[in-house]
Amino acid sequence: MSFKHLYSLLVLGFTLFGASFIASGQPGSSNAPTVQSEATPPGKEGNKLDVAKVIFGHIADAHEWHLFTVTHPDGEPTHVSLPLPVILYHPQKGFSFFSSSRIADGQSYEGYHLEKGMMKEHIISEDGVGIYDVSITKNVLSMLIGVALLLWIMMKAGKKYNQYGAMKAPSGMQNFIEVIIIFLRDEVARPCLGKSYKKYMPLLLTIFFFIWINNLLGLLPGGANFTGNITATCCLALYL
User: Fold this and answer.
1) Which segments of the chain does DSSP mark as H helices, in order?
2) Is residue 18 part of a domain?
3) Which region, left, alpha or beta, applies to residue 112 given φ > 0 means left and ψ of -120 to 50 means alpha?
4) Are both 164 and 219 inside the same structural domain?
5) What DSSP character marks residue 187?
6) Do 140 and 21 contact (CB within 8 A), yes or no?
7) How far is CA 26 from CA 54, 124, 131, 133, 158, in A?
8) For the chain, how many structural domains are there in total?
9) Does residue 44 share a domain with residue 121?
């Protein structure tokens, strides 16, 4: 993968991480899956399904990664989630690191508690001081997984080009990637950008594969809908 590909990817990654930091709402461990029991499943009030709550619950950011829900014969659900690292900075206390399981279910830990919002959870300091929340949330972790997959795919394909050149028939991952790259070059870049299309191909390919990989990850059962979050789409719009 060329330096331009890597540079574009790093810039986009830092931009999206910064947006997640800003969206934390305020300035300012154990990682084993936790099991939580609730009397009413999310999005349901009695026998009525709250569609809006279910949708926003799927695209909202959170400090834990909900994996699946098990419904028992008595109708009581058990939600299985993966706690994520909480990283907070308090102007007087300094940095705090702990698992999100410490503040689940309305618990308080080290003077902090969790407040759930429509699109994002907020960690509040009980002394009223504004804090900086730079935690690894579900969307941040999903983005990092997407970046890792993008690097692996591109470096694997680029390795074959370095070994055999562009004149040998592609195979494996190289064959899969080359079809998409040629389509973007001939059907998107050349018609829209004209003679200067080569200059923008690294950026165009990075953005395309980044969005595409994260869209696919969001379709997996238990996956995070990272590209469905307004923060991600706003950052991509500003970046472009």
Assistant:
1) 3-22, 51-59, 138-164, 173-184, 190-193, 197-219, 230-239
2) no
3) beta
4) yes
5) I
6) no
7) 25, 8, 6, 7, 42
8) 2
9) yes
Tell me the β-bridge partners of 34.
81
Tokens of 163: 């070994």
Q: Which of 87, 111, 133 is the last residue of a domain?
A: 133
Does any domain span residue 120?
Answer: yes
Which pTM does this prediction carry?
0.70
Amino acid identity for residue 58 in this structure: H
Amino acid identity, residue 190? R
Has residue 20 been placed in a domain?
no
165: left (phi over 0), alpha (psi -120 to 50) or beta: left
User: pLDDT of 4-55, one tens digit each?
Assistant: 555 555 555 555 455 444 444 444 344 444 444 444 445 555 557 676 666 6
Q: Examine the fold and report which residue of 133, 151, 185 is the final residue of a domain before the chain moves on.
A: 133
Beta-bridged to residue 94, according to DSSP, are 90
The domain in which residue 226 lies consists of 3-13+138-239
CA distance 33 to 180: 38
Are 116 and 97 found together in one domain?
Answer: yes
Assess whether 192 and 222 both reside in one domain.
yes
Sole residue written with tokens 């900086």:
132
> How far is 139 from 198, CA to CA, in rounded Å?
32
Inter-helix orientation angle 138-164/173-184, to 10°: 100
Do 77 and 151 belong to one domain? no
C-beta of residue 96 within 8 angstroms of C-beta of residue 28? no
Measured CA to CA, the distance from residue 210 to residue 183 in angstroms comes to 17
Whether residue 78 contacts residue 36, with contact meaning beta carbons closer than 8 Å, is answered with: yes
Instruction: Give residue-wise pLDDT tens across range 153-185.
Output: 888 888 877 877 777 777 777 788 888 888 999
* 158 and 101 both lie in a single domain: no
